[in-house]
Amino acid sequence: MNSFTLSSPAKINLFLRILSKRPDGFHDLATLMQTISLADKITFTISEGRNDRDLLTCNDPAVPTDATNLIFKAAELFRKRTRLNFAIKVNLEKRIPAQAGLGGGSGNAATTLWGLNRFFRKPLSKSELMKLAGAIGSDVAFFLSGGTAYCTGRGEQIKELEKLKDQAIWILLPEFGISTPEVYRNLRLDECLDICPEELLSGFLQGQGQVCNDLERPAFKVRPELEEIKRQLANQGMAHVLMSGSGSSFFCSEADDKGREPKIANARMFKANFINRDEDEWYC
Ligand code: C5P
């Protein structure tokens, strides 16, 4: 078979601390990331040894289908690194919106690297794949972990963790996205939290984690509506309400397990749970 379909999950940041600005313009951060059941579906068809062009179709017209799509960037890096001669036809069924802080595009890139490596019988080791992933974007390497990881550096230094206790969560998607570079431009390091990330991590490992995100404050400056959404979710009895990554999505859990769906105007709501994968399997 030269065709296969893989699920490409979203992630949330259970905590996200920004530590410093680096000389390369990026920020050193420390974050606990978790993959969740909200996922895109990607079907790859590989033609080997031919000079066909890579092609991408997608159900969402807002998704770029040219060389800027991270799926093509991942395929190109894999081709260069392995010197394999192939082309890919990709059908991307998008459910994770762009600019939501859910790592949709990054997850698509990681899924492409993992899928190609399996198809070609593992020419690259996991650490070689992680290196390619780091060159695509700060969040891509995380998706090559087992689904729960403490990430530092730009986000690409991965410490894999045992899976956490599963948790039913609500994901809230506002009708607008937010630009990650713009959020970082509005970040002030002197306004960041003063909590040691290692302490936050050990709280989660002991089953009593405290969610927090240093990017909320700058994102609220860019889109003040986001602060209002957070307030409304808390008013509706939701617990652990937090923006994911650089926004614009939020996640929260029910304080009382009554299955009540929060209602926020002009926003979509998805029920999700934590997912993890075994070493030789992809997420499903
Ligand atoms: O690596 P990625 O493409 O996700 O980064 C998008 C933008 O987010 C960067 O251009 C940078 O402005 C900002 N960023 C940052 N520090 C990080 C990750 C991202 O400043 N650790």
Structure write-up:
This protein is of the alpha+beta class. It has seven helices and eleven strands. The protein has helices at 70-82, 104-119, 126-136, 180-185, 197-205, 216-222, 225-235; strands spanning 3-21, 27-48, 55-58, 86-93, 148-152, 157-160, 168-174, 212-213, 238-243, 250-254, 267-273. Helix 1 runs parallel beside helix 2, helix 1 packs across helix 3 (126-136) and helix 2 runs antiparallel to helix 3 (126-136). The longest helix has 16 residues, at 104-119. The protein is globular. The two termini are 19 Å apart. The protein binds cytidine-5'-monophosphate. Cytidine-5'-monophosphate binds at residues 26-27, 29, 137-139, 154-155, 180-181, 184.
Topology (elements, then pairings):
Elements: E1 3-21, E2 27-48, E3 55-58, H1 70-82, E4 86-93, H2 104-119, H3 126-136, E5 148-152, E6 157-160, E7 168-174, H4 180-185, H5 197-205, E8 212-213, H6 216-222, H7 225-235, E9 238-243, E10 250-254, E11 267-273
Parallel strand pairs: 1-8, 3-4
Antiparallel strand pairs: 1-2, 2-4, 2-5, 5-6, 7-10, 7-11, 9-10
The structure holds cytidine-5'-monophosphate.
Short description:
The protein has 284 residues and is α+β, with helices and mostly antiparallel strands. Helices cover 26% and strands 31% of the residues.
The total beta strand count reads 11
Spell out which ligands are present.
Answer: cytidine-5'-monophosphate
Distance between the termini: 19 Å
Unreliable sequence segments: none
Mean model confidence by pLDDT: 95
Summing up helix and strand content along with how strands pair, one would put the structural category as alpha+beta
Strand content: 25-35%
What is the overall silhouette?
Answer: globular
Task: Report the sheet with the most strands, covering strand number, pairing sense and barrel closure.
Answer: 7 strands, mixed
Order of helix and strand elements from N to C terminus: EEEHEHHEEEHHEHHEEE
Estimate the helix proportion, in percent.
Answer: 25-40%
Number of helices: 7
Report Rg: 19 Å
